[in-house]
Amino acid sequence: SPARHVSSDPISDMKISPSKSLSPSPPIEDEDDGLSKHRRVLFTVGKVSIKIKHCILRKDPTYNGYGLVLRYQNGLHLIDQVEDDSPAYIAGLREDDIILYADKKNVQQLTHDDVKILIRKLSIKNMDIDLILM
After folding, report:
1. 97: containing domain
2. Domain harbouring 60, CATH code
3. Residue 3 lies inside a defined structural domain of this protein
4. Which residues form the PDZ domain (predicted)?
5. What is the value of pTM for the model shown?
6. Beta bridge partners of 45
7. What Å distances lie between residue 66 and 63, 78, 100, CA to CA?
């Protein structure tokens, strides 16, 4: 079946198609961590909401690097550490976020080295890094 197109934002453009038993939700407005502009509920199962967020990681000429450390654990690409006030922190990345997409590529089947290489290549080209995280 075709993917449901809920809105024109990049999250919807990822062609994620929830089954009929799952219902998409609007942006979360009651979060008090300052990240509600990044976070959306992908679907809800019972009382559990699966939340994803869309972050754009941009280089800052006054900052060396992005201020994040990645790790691979249990088959997942995770954000291990985020430095306060770094480009990663400002973009909305937080420790233990799971990377689902980087540069519109599903990273779940990539090796951890391939994910790091992808991010490094975009960094070298001074390109924004488009991330979908959970």
Report:
1. 12-133
2. 2.30.42.10
3. no
4. 54-121
5. 0.67
6. 48
7. 7, 15, 18
